[in-house]
TrEMBL record:
GO terms for biological process: regulation of DNA-templated transcription. A motif (PRPP-binding) lies at residues 112-124. It catalyses: UMP + diphosphate = 5-phospho-alpha-D-ribose 1-diphosphate + uracil. Keywords: Glycosyltransferase, Transcription, Transcription regulation, Transferase. The keyword Glycoprotein does not apply. This is Bifunctional protein PyrR.
């Protein structure tokens, strides 16, 4: 992306925001999260990664690929659409349903790691917990996010965080991923 004006010294300021993570930062964060998941779980046994569409699914796939490199084990990856479980469903325009794909082994008695790109109010994750309740009963549920930008409305926290990003509520954090957006970046504007 070409900046329209020279950025202030010490900052990288593309036209649509300030870059806080570039592709290498994102790669490092996902590698660290993958190791932290394995450490916390004492290996990959019983793990299932469920990404929240859209970008959370790609992040879950990347984490699974790193776990496979480290452990030589393919951790099941799925996707969990939360659209029908949103608490603002009736207040917003109709949204397209996104895929829910639960791995063949299901989630009963598994350690499910929910994966999303941004954690903000926590309402998406609350919806995900409700959505999972209709699918099975995991042994435990953990949360991995690429960015935690604060400003929670609910008592929800992430177990694995790529970057804690202090923000004002007026700001917007945009995650872009190669698979979905054609590039890897996290910007704030
Ligand atoms: O903690 P919260 O306040 O729920 O915010 C976090 C959610 O917001 C974004 O999704 P969004 O609903 O904007 O849709 P998107 O996935 O299309 O970006 C993001 O992908 C997270 O899922
Ligand atoms: O800044 C925000 C808030 C919610 N979801 C995002 O993707 N970005």
């Amino acid at each position: 992306m070409t900046p329209t004006a020279a950025p202030p010294p010490g900052t990288d300021l593309p036209a649509d925001g300030r870059t806080v993570l570039d592709a290498r930062d994102i790669a490092r964060a996902l590698t660290r999260i993958s190791h932290e998941i394995l450490e916390r779980n004492k290996g990959s046994h019983d793990l299932v990664l469920l990404g929240i569409p859209s970008r959370g699914v790609h992040l879950a796939q990347r984490i699974a690929a790193r776990i496979a490199e480290v452990e030589g084990v393919e951790v099941p990856v799925g996707s969990l659409d939360i659209t029908m479980y949103r608490d603002d469903l009736r207040m917003r325009p109709a949204r397209t349903l996104l895929p829910t794909e639960i791995p063949a082994g299901g989630i009963d008695d598994k350690i499910v790691v929910l994966v999303d790109d941004v954690l903000y109010s926590g309402r998406t994750i609350r919806s995900a917990l409700d959505a999972m309740n209709d699918i099975g009963r995991p042994q435990a549920v953990r949360l991995a996010v690429l960015v935690d930008r604060g400003h929670r409305d609910l008592p929800i926290r992430a177990d694995f965080v790529g970057k804690n990003l202090p923000t004002s509520q007026a700001e917007k954090v945009a995650v872009r991923l190669e698979e979905y957006d054609g590039e890897d970046s996290v910007t704030i504007r």
